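Most newcomers find our protein records easier to grasp once they have seen one. The structure tokens are whole numbers drawn from a learned vocabulary of backbone shapes. The record below serves as our worked example for the rest of this section.
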Amino acid sequence: MVFVTREEFDQSVAEARKAAQAYYDSGDVVMTDADYDVLADRIAASLKANPDWDDQGVTTEVAAGSSAGGDVRHPTPMLSLDKITTADEVTEFVATLGGDGCLVEVKLDGLAIRAEYVEGRLTLAALRGDGSTGEDVTAQVRKGVAGLPVALTGDWTGEVRGEVYMTVADFETASANRVAAGAKAFVNSRGAVAGSIRSIDRTYDTPMTFAAYDVSGTFDSHLERMAFAAGLGFPAACDLIPSVAGERFTAEEVTAAIDEIGSHRADLVFPIDGAVIKANREVTRRRLGLASRTPYWAAAFKYPPDTAATVLRDIEVRVGRTGRITLRAVIDPVYVAGTTVTRATLHNPQWVLDQGLAIGQTVAVWRAGDVIPRVTTPIGEQPHGLTPWTPPEVCPQCGEPWDKSSLLWRCHTASCSVVGAITYAASRECLDVDGLGEEIVIALAEAGLVKDLASLFDVTLDQFTTLRTGDGSRQVGASTAGRIMTGLTRAREQPFNRVITALGIRMTGRSVGRWLASRFKTMDALRAATVEEIAEIDKMGLIKAQHVVDGLVAMSDVIDRLAAHGLSMAVVDDGSAKPLAGQVYVVSGSVPGYTRTTVNERIEALGGTASGSVSAKTTALVTAETGTTKAKKAQLEIPILDPEEFARMLA
């Protein structure tokens, strides 16, 4: 769709340049990536229809021609990549290579950076800026960026280029730390990196990681180049997903690799916004050459953006499984990371107050990996006259005042947490009852069919099929009801540790459930255990142990009825050999065929111990990300196993 008038076009160019300048120079987000892409595409289409119009570099220059650059001049330009979004465009690009092979790798959603080393010491780090000059961030990088060390093990002199990014967990940490320091939360992980790496005097921790996509030297291919970079200690972007690390020659092979990366997007611990397609051989790159803004030998296939702007319409207040207040934003439908979202989570009430959120405000919604969609911050220009939202002083379900002794307000009335408790127990990491989400649990509670977890197993197929959800206009179908009943049957086969976790006792979770099952073996033994005996378990302590004892007593009747329904009340020992007995494994990232919970369960079923941190007792670290701090620590002390190799070992 093109702009009709020159005035509309010029105004849109100004908006695009303003957004690009903020994006590249400060890290502030005044417009989401999705909105910017739509605007830039309209500008490009309008320019094609009206060649005499001037887009001031939006479609032809790095950073849309709006970056102020910096004090550091790059020896060779740091270019951008052309965007492609369809299979036909992939085919066209592969055809330009003339039969030579190309590579497909992740497009990290971070910040481009160039670092210089002299005799193994970091001497300069600079951002891309306008492509010709960039901002000096050497001092900030020296504070610590995983994968971009201050000193190498050798005396190499040269330059490395790549992307600085935050993992999903690092973004959560950085954003929480920023709010605690009195500032607004980050909009997304890229904005967090951009703001953090420029901040000389920040007082809070913002962990970051580096992955290389170029290194100086003479090589015949990109794979040779990246092997050299990895040997120096720089994690290579092309190795982050091993299943696509290799040369491809046909459009079908390239498309399959793009789909493969996209299929992993939900479970990756690092943020990506696309896949990069690039020529492998240097001779091909020299033949195709460079444009003023982009190389002709590389392109970026963009996935649906993980951040979008929408309007906040309401904030729902609910009570979670342990009586904790939960806030949920009701938003205008918006497409984020491949799905349409109408609701998103919010942080605690104080965070909402600190952000000044108001009904009718435009907000950013972020969804990355398997993270539930979340409102991160207000964004862009806001309407005047909005009144900031304030949380209720009492529990909306029972009218009792909140316990505000911590940021996570609680209601101590047991009946208030029924919906949250059952929804949690039915989740994938607990009893894994497919199809039983919060909406159906709410309908069950409103119909008086459930009052606790054990009563869920009394509900019949006919009762499920007569339920009406939402405003009462939607009936639970026979197919969904059948899936739930099948899930309830399979729940009786779930291991003992998951039953413990499903009880939802305060300060417990999937790890504590495994620890308790491993230590006490049966529910009878666990219920008979003293606070001191439970506290002896590593990482438990007296406070957690007291909550476990109190929770088991409070749920005594529920536990007895769960046992009567046939749920597992003991660790099943099949008498097979325990090949991992006495061994301790730390899994960082994903293992093919397993979730975070099932891989730890499998380790323990084979007699081993699953730990969350590397120590002197660790047998091996399982990870594909050799540039992380955890991996670097492990490299000095213990073996590192590839996830695919470990999966074969577990099988």
About this structure: The mean pLDDT is 85. The first helix runs from residue 6 to 25.
